[in-house]
Design goal:
The chain is an all-alpha fold. It has 2 domains: 177 residues, UbiA prenyltransferase (Tetracycline Repressor, domain 2, Orthogonal Bundle), CATH 1.10.357.140; 130 residues. The chain has 17 helices and no strands. One of its GO terms (biological process) is heme O biosynthetic process. It is a multi-pass membrane protein.
């Protein structure tokens, strides 16, 4: 299910070739700026929490590399997924389906930015951070986009690792190695991803079905998806508390995170018990705020001198 039609593959470039003059805004849209903003923020948190310091110029360089690497992954994703983007209501306005940028241009743009971001990170900051950045790009492009997305309803579960690497990159940019805290931050984002995206998939299931993408509601049905959202939420909340329980975060993080987690679980229970999409839409919006607040609390505690 959801495999690229081999006969249609040959005609994709013609179908989604450029028909108009591309604007800078179109190339910026290829970078998936909303996704990029969250990636940069979590990378910044990893950098700030890391022991030691980084020259401001190198810190800005590292963040730019994280942003550009994430954007490059998005551009290559849009190149590969041009056929399904043209079918799905949520993605039809992207530059390639609209004919403002050709698939070849998007691929070239993404590849140049990918290589450039990794090289600049390695030469300007350190090669450990560059290696994790390269792993992030490769995981998103080859593991999630090309392998998992069209083949398995576990696409989001496994593929979610790509979005969980940035705190590790930020930490490694400062220290040149990894430690327990960045691994916990990775685990938080990794476990957050399924309930976040499955909530979206619940009320966009027709879109995914039309595009042939085997998201969980399409393959296993809505009741199972609602159950999985609850199960992953029950696993997620204790993991979000682990930095505090292990003494790596302070009382501000522990107390507020417990409250935010209780709200998250309350929404997950409502999704499990309901048959409409209101709770799922609320979960999708709240989950973004939830993740942002968790990482903002860690930043706030570092500013107050609390935590590890």
């Amino acid at each position: 299910m959801g495999q690229v039609n081999e006969a249609g593959n040959a005609g994709l470039d013609a179908a989604y070739g450029k028909t108009g003059e591309a604007r800078p805004a179109d190339y910026f849209a290829l970078l998936k700026p909303r996704v990029m903003s969250l990636v940069v923020f979590t990378g910044l948190v990893g950098m700030v929490l890391a022991p030691g310091s980084l020259h401001p110029v190198l810190a800005i360089t590292a963040l730019l590399c994280i942003a550009i690497g994430a954007g490059a992954s998005g551009a290559i994703n849009m190149w590969y997924d041009a056929d399904i983007d043209a079918v799905m209501t949520r993605t039809q306005s992207r530059p390639i389906p609209q004919g403002r940028i050709s698939r070849d241009e998007a691929l070239g743009f993404g590849c140049v930015l990918s290589v450039g971001s990794v090289l600049v990170m390695g030469l300007g900051v350190n090669w450990v951070a560059a290696a994790i950045l390269a792993l992030t790009i490769g995981f998103y492009v080859f593991i999630y986009t090309m392998w998992l997305k069209r083949r398995t309803p576990q696409n989001i579960v496994i593929g979610g690792a790509a979005g969980a690497f940035p705190p590790m990159i930020g930490w490694a940019a400062v220290t040149g190695d990894l430690s327990l805290l960045p691994l916990l931050l990775f685990a938080i984002i990794f476990m957050w991803t399924p309930p976040h995206f499955w909530a979206l998939a619940l009320y966009r299931s027709d879109d995914y079905a039309r595009a042939g993408v085997p998201m969980l509601p399409v393959v296993a049905g809505e009741p199972e998806t609602r159950r999985q959202i609850l199960l992953y939420s029950l696993l997620l909340v204790p993991i979000t508390l682990s930095p505090w329980m292990l003494g790596l975060a302070g009382p501000l993080y522990g107390g507020v995170t417990a409250l935010l987690g209780a709200i998250f679980l309350g929404i997950a229970f409502r999704i499990w018990r309901s048959t409409d999409y209101k709770s799922a839409k609320y979960m999708f919006g709240y989950s973004i705020l939830y993740l942002f607040l968790l990482f903002a609390l860690l930043l706030a505690e570092r500013g107050l001198g609390w935590g590890a």
